[in-house]
Automatic annotation (TrEMBL), chain A:
Its EC number is 6.5.1.1. Gene3D superfamilies: DNA ligase, ATP-dependent, N-terminal domain, DNA ligase/mRNA capping enzyme, Nucleic acid-binding proteins. This is DNA ligase (ATP). It comes from Chitinophaga cymbidii. It holds the Pfam family DNA_ligase_A_M. GO terms for molecular function: ATP binding; DNA binding; DNA ligase (ATP) activity; metal ion binding. One of its GO terms (biological process) is DNA replication. Residues 306-436 form the ATP-dependent DNA ligase family profile domain. It catalyses: ATP + (deoxyribonucleotide)n-3'-hydroxyl + 5'-phospho-(deoxyribonucleotide)m = (deoxyribonucleotide)n+m + AMP + diphosphate. InterPro entries: ATP-dep_DNA_ligase, ATP_dep_DNA_lig_pp_1105_fam, DNA_ligase_ATP-dep_C, DNA_ligase_ATP-dep_cent, DNA_ligase_ATP-dep_CS, DNA_ligase_ATP-dep_N, DNA_ligase_N_sf, NA-bd_OB-fold.
Automatic annotation (TrEMBL), chain B:
InterPro entries: MBL (IPR050698), RibonucZ/Hydroxyglut_hydro (IPR036866), Xnuc_lig_assoc (IPR026360). The keyword Ligase applies. This is DNA ligase-associated DEXH box helicase. It comes from Chitinophaga cymbidii. GO terms for molecular function: ligase activity; RNA endonuclease activity. Keywords: Ligase.
C-alpha cells in the first residue's frame, strides 16, 4: 500500500502530464505483480463495490476521534473531501503491524461485500489503527471512491505503452472489456492471444473535438459526412458467439438495463460491433425524446413496465467496427458506412436505427441546417471525414463536433457553497436566480466557467457579503450578475422554478449588468417552447 | 466590575489604561503584540512592544515612530493598568499582552504557537482570569507534525530535487516563517538565496545579533549556476509571478499551515506543501486555554465560532469576537499567515 500511496501522492501533487506519465510507468515497472492489475482497474473505472457508505465512515470516525457531529461537519466543509477529513481527524495509529500490499486490502473489500455491519466496522477501525496518515487517506479513498488526481484512462494507457513497449491504441483495446483484477495478471491482460477469448471485449471509442466553425482547413464539403449530434448515452453494441453485450463509453457493461436492445440478439448476425447512441425514442413520430426521459432509465437496474412504455430506447448506429468477426476499423468511413447501412436494413428492427446522413452541398448551407438542430432534438452536427479510419480516443483532424450555441440567460448569485478537491475551502459552487415579479427564484446551480482569478475574487466577495449561513451554504447579497449558459431546458415539477436545465455553467461574469436587468422566469418559460 | 479589556471598532481597548492592543485604526497609545502588518499598523502616536520587536517595527513603520520596548516579563504601569509582555513563540519579538486592573488579569494572545522553533522564543502560558485567544487553525484537522519531522521532510524534498536536477524554491512568509526556516535549515544546504522582501528584514535581524545564517539577495545578475545546490526562499506574493521563471527548472514547496489540506497545495500548483505554521494547532489551542486557567475565553481571528462553541460544550464560558485581524475563518489568507 505504501508504494501505491506514494504513487497517488506523486500524481496528485504533479501538475505536469509528463511527470505523471513518468511516475506511472515507473510504478508499473516496479510494483507488486498482484497490485498492478488492481491499479489499472482503479484508474479505469473498475473499482470494487463500496463496502460501506459515507455516513457509516463518518460515524465511525466520530466515535474513534470523540468529536461531535457539528465539528466533524465544519471540518468536512473546510477539507472538501470525506476520505481526507477522516484521515486528518483520526488519532495516530497504534499497532505496529507489517505494512500490507494494496491487493491485500482490495481482496478484503471483496470478501467483506456481504459481511455484517459489525464485521465491516471492526475491519475498518482495525485498518485505520495500523495505517499511517497517507495510507489512511488512500485507504479511505479506495472505499469512498474517486481519486481526482488528474489521471485519465489515456494517461494510464500511455504509461503502460511506455513500460511494455506496445502501441497505445493496442493497449487501449487490450485492457478494455471484462476482466477481473483478482484473477488476471497484467501480462495476461496484455497478451493478445489470451485476451481473444473474451467475447464481450469492446473497442476503444473514437471521440471528436469541438469545432468553432468549418473553415478552409476542412477542405471540400464533399470530403465530409455530416450527421446530427445526438444527446444520449454513447454505447457499443456487440454480438459474438451468440451473446449480446452493450458497453457505455465509460466502459461499463450496461446490457441488462436495456431489454429493448437485448432483444436484438436474435436479429443481429454474429461477429459485429456497432458504435452508436442509446436514446429514448418516440417511434410513432420517429424522433428522439428529450434527454430528461432517458434520465429515468439511467441508474436503474430493474426497468419497470411503465418506464419501458414511457421511455423506450433505441440504438442509433453511427459506425461499424467489427463485421463478420473482423476488426474493420482501418477501413475508410465510407466503406464502413455502406456495410452499416446494409446491416441495419437487414436487421430491420425499430430498436436499431441508423444515424441519418445530413445532405448539404456547401458550408453555408450546412451552417444554416445546424441552426435548426433543436427542431429535431439534436444538439448540433457531427462532421466525419469520409476517408477516415476509426481511431482511438480523442483525436484532432477526422471527427469534429459542431454544436449549436448554448442558451444563455443573465442571473444573479444568491447562494454560495465551498467546493471540493483543489477548490476546497473556496466558495466555488453557486446557486443563481432570476426575477419572478419582485421575487428572486433560484433556477440553476453551476460550478464551473470562471477562471481561478475570478473564483478568488468571488470567494473574497462572498466572505464579505454573506447575509445568512445555513450549514455550509451562505446566502449572499443578490448583487453579482453572471451569464449562465445551458444546453437544454425542460419543465420540471421537482424544481421550485418549474424548470430544469441541462449542463448549466457560468459563461461570463457580467460586471456591467445591474441586478435589476437580469432575466425573468417568464423569459425562461419562453425558451421551453423553442 | 468593569471589564479590563473591551472590543471596540478601533481594536481591543483598555479603559483603565486608555490604550489599545493591536489597533486597526490610529490611536494615541498602541500596545503591539508583534510586527506583522495586520497587528502593527501605521499612524499611531505612540507604540509599546517588546525590545526585540522595536527594530522590526521601525523597519516596517519607519525609524521616526515613537516606540518604547520592554523586556519579556517587565512590568509597566499605564494609568491604572499593569502591563507586561510574555513570549508567544510566533516570530522574533512576538508577545502575549498581560493586563491587570484591580486584581483582574486579562491576557490577549496576539498570534502564538506552542512549539519552540528555536528562534521565535519559547511560548509560555500565562495564568489569567480572561484569555483572548487567536484561532487561525481552530479546527481539529489542524495538528502539526513536530518541527523536527517537518524539517526532515523538507530536507528529503531538497535532496530529491537535486537528484532530479531541479532547483528548490520554498515559499514562506517573509517575516517570521522565513527566519524560522533559515535558522533551522542552516546546515542543510551550502547557500541560501532570497527574494528582496526577505532580504531586508533578514539583514536587519542579523545586524541585531540574531543567530541567522548569511543569505544572498537574488538579483537579475545572479548567475543561474548559483541556483543549483542552494535553497531559494521567496515570499507568497512571488508565486505565479514572472520573477520565478529564472529558477527553471525548479520545484515549488509552500510552507504554511494551510498546506495541511491537500487542495490548497494543489490549487497553487505547488510541487509540495509543508504544513509548518507559526500558529497554534488545535491541540495547542486547547492545551493553552487549559493552562491559562481562564474562566472566560474570547476567540478571535480564525475559526473563532467553532472554537468558542467547542469550549462552551466543554463547560467553559466562551465567546466569539470579530476583529480586523482576519475578521473570521474565511478571511484567512491562503498562504500568508
Amino acid at each position: 500500500m505504501q508504494h501505491f500511496s506514494q504513487l497517488v501522492f506523486t500524481l496528485a501533487q504533479s501538475t505536469k502530464t509528463n511527470e505523471k506519465l513518468d511516475a506511472l510507468s515507473r510504478y508499473f515497472a516496479t510494483a507488486d505483480e498482484k497490485d498492478k492489475p488492481w491499479v489499472l482497474a482503479l484508474f479505469s473505472g473498475r473499482r470494487p463495490k463500496r463496502i460501506v457508505n459515507s455516513t457509516l465512515m463518518k460515524q465511525w470516525c466520530m466515535e474513534v476521534s470523540g468529536l461531535p457531529e457539528w465539528l466533524f461537519s465544519e471540518c468536512y466543509h473546510t477539507v472538501g473531501d470525506l476520505g481526507e477529513t477522516i484521515a486528518l481527524l483520526l488519532p495516530p495509529p497504534n499497532t505496529t503491524t507489517a505494512p500490507k500490499p494494496l491487493h491485500y486490502w482490495l481482496d478484503r473489500f471483496l470478501q467483506l461485500e456481504k459481511a455484517s455491519e459489525a464485521e465491516k466496522s471492526a475491519f475498518i477501525r482495525n485498518a485505520w489503527d495500523q495505517l499511517q496518515h497517507t495510507e489512511r487517506f488512500v485507504f479511505n479513498k479506495l472505499i469512498t471512491g474517486g481519486f481526482r488526481i488528474g489521471v485519465s484512462q489515456s494517461m494510464i494507457v500511455n504509461a503502460l505503452a511506455r513500460t511494455y513497449n506496445i502501441a497505445p491504441a493496442i493497449i487501449s483495446h487490450m485492457i478494455s472489456g471484462n476482466w477481473d483484477p483478482q484473477q488476471t495478471t497484467l501480462s495476461e491482460l496484455l497478451n493478445e492471444e489470451a485476451r481473444n477469448t473474451d467475447d464481450s471485449r469492446p473497442y476503444p471509442f473514437f471521440l471528436a473535438y469541438a469545432l468553432e466553425s468549418p473553415r478552409g482547413e476542412l477542405g471540400e464539403p464533399d470530403e465530409w459526412q455530416a450527421e446530427w449530434k445526438w444527446d444520449g448515452i454513447r454505447g457499443q453494441l456487440i454480438r459474438r458467439n451468440g451473446q449480446l453485450f452493450i458497453w457505455s463509453r465509460g466502459e461499463e457493461l450496461i446490457t441488462e438495463k436495456f431489454p429493448e436492445l437485448t432483444a436484438l440478439l436474435s436479429f443481429l448476425p454474429d461477429g459485429v460491433a456497432i458504435d452508436g447512441e442509446i436514446l429514448t425514442y418516440d417511434q410513432e413520430n420517429d424522433r428522439p425524446l428529450p434527454f430528461q426521459a432517458l434520465q429515468t432509465r439511467i441508474g436503474r437496474k430493474n426497468v419497470t413496465r411503465k418506464q419501458l412504455q414511457e421511455a423506450p430506447v433505441a440504438f442509433l448506429s453511427y459506425d461499424l467496427l467489427e463485421y463478420e468477426g473482423e476488426d474493420i476499423r482501418a477501413l475508410p468511413l465510407q466503406d464502413r458506412r455502406a456495410l452499416l447501412e446494409k446491416l441495419v436494413a437487414a436487421v430491420h428492427q425499430p430498436a436499431l436505427k441508423i444515424s441519418p446522413v445530413v445532405a448539404y452541398s456547401d458550408w453555408p448551407q450546412l451552417a444554416a441546417l445546424r441552426e435548426q438542430s433543436r427542431n429535431n432534438g439534436s444538439e448540433g452536427l457531427m462532421l466525419k471525414r469520409r476517408s477516415s479510419a476509426y481511431l482511438v480516443g480523442r483525436k484532432r483532424g477526422d471527427w469534429w463536433k459542431w454544436k449549436i450555441d448554448p442558451f444563455t440567460v443573465d442571473a444573479v448569485m444568491i447562494y454560495a457553497q465551498k467546493g471540493h478537491g483543489r477548490r476546497s475551502n473556496l466558495y466555488t459552487d453557486y446557486t443563481f436566480a432570476v426575477w419572478n415579479g419582485d421575487q428572486l427564484v433560484p433556477f440553476a446551480k453551476a460550478y464551473s466557467g470562471l477562471t481561478d482569478k475570478e473564483i478568488a475574487e468571488v470567494d473574497n466577495w462572498v466572505k464579505r457579503n454573506s447575509i445568512e449561513k445555513f450549514g455550509p451554504v451562505r446566502t449572499v447579497k443578490p448583487e453579482l450578475v453572471f451569464e449562465i449558459a445551458f444546453e437544454g431546458i425542460a419543465a420540471s415539477n421537482r424544481h421550485k422554478s418549474g424548470i430544469a436545465l441541462r449542463f448549466p455553467r457560468i459563461h461570463r461574469w457580467r460586471k456591467d449588468k445591474p441586478v435589476e436587468e437580469i432575466n425573468t422566469l417568464d423569459d425562461l418559460r419562453q425558451l421551453l417552447r423553442v | 466590575m468593569e471589564p479590563v479589556l473591551t472590543f471596540t471598532d478601533k481594536g481591543i481597548y483598555c479603559a483603565a489604561g486608555d490604550f489599545y492592543i493591536d489597533p486597526w485604526k490610529p490611536v494615541p497609545r498602541a500596545v503591539i503584540t508583534h510586527a506583522h502588518s495586520d497587528h502593527a499598523r501605521p499612524g499611531n502616536q505612540h507604540y509599546l512592544c517588546t525590545k526585540d520587536s522595536v527594530p522590526v517595527l521601525q523597519l516596517r513603520l519607519g525609524q521616526d515612530i515613537s516606540v518604547q520596548g520592554l523586556a519579556y516579563g517587565e512590568q509597566i504601569y499605564i494609568n491604572g493598568a499593569t502591563v507586561s509582555f510574555h513570549p508567544a513563540g510566533h516570530m522574533i519579538g512576538s508577545a502575549q499582552v498581560k493586563v491587570t486592573v484591580n486584581g483582574q488579569t486579562w491576557v490577549a494572545s496576539g498570534d502564538y504557537k506552542t512549539e519552540n522553533d528555536g528562534i521565535s522564543g519559547a511560548f509560555e502560558p500565562v495564568k489569567c482570569h480572561v484569555f483572548i485567544t487567536e484561532s487561525t487553525f481552530g479546527l481539529p484537522i489542524y495538528h502539526w507534525k513536530p518541527q523536527s519531522a517537518m524539517l526532515g521532510d523538507i530536507r528529503s524534498w531538497i535532496h530529491e530535487n537535486q537528484q532530479a536536477g531541479k532547483n528548490s524554491v520554498l515559499v514562506a512568509y517573509s517575516l517570521g516563517k522565513a527566519q524560522r526556516l533559515l535558522y533551522n535549515l542552516q546546515h542543510a544546504v551550502p547557500k541560501f538565496l532570497v527574494h528582496g522582501a526577505i532580504f531586508n528584514a533578514h539583514e536587519m535581524l542579523r545586524s541585531q545579533g540574531w543567530p541567522l545564517p548569511p543569505v544572498e539577495l537574488i538579483t537579475p545578475q545572479t548567475p543561474k549556476e548559483d541556483f543549483k545546490n542552494s535553497l531559494i526562499i521567496a515570499p507568497p506574493s512571488a508565486t505565479g509571478s514572472s520573477w520565478m521563471r529564472r529558477f527553471l527548472p525548479y520545484a515549488l514547496g509552500i510552507c504554511s499551515g494551510w498546506m495541511q489540506v491537500r487542495g490548497n497545495a494543489r490549487r497553487q500548483n505547488a510541487d509540495a506543501g509543508f504544513a509548518i505554521s507559526d500558529h497554534a494547532d488545535w491541540p495547542g489551542l486547547l492545551q493553552t486555554i487549559k493552562a491559562t486557567g481562564a474562566e472566560k475565553v474570547f476567540a478571535t481571528h480564525g475559526f473563532s465560532s467553532v472554537l468558542a462553541r467547542y469550549l462552551q460544550e466543554n463547560g467553559l464560558e466562551a465567546e466569539e469576537v470579530k476583529t480586523a485581524f482576519g475578521a473570521e475563518e474565511d478571511d484567512t489568507p491562503v498562504i500568508a499567515e
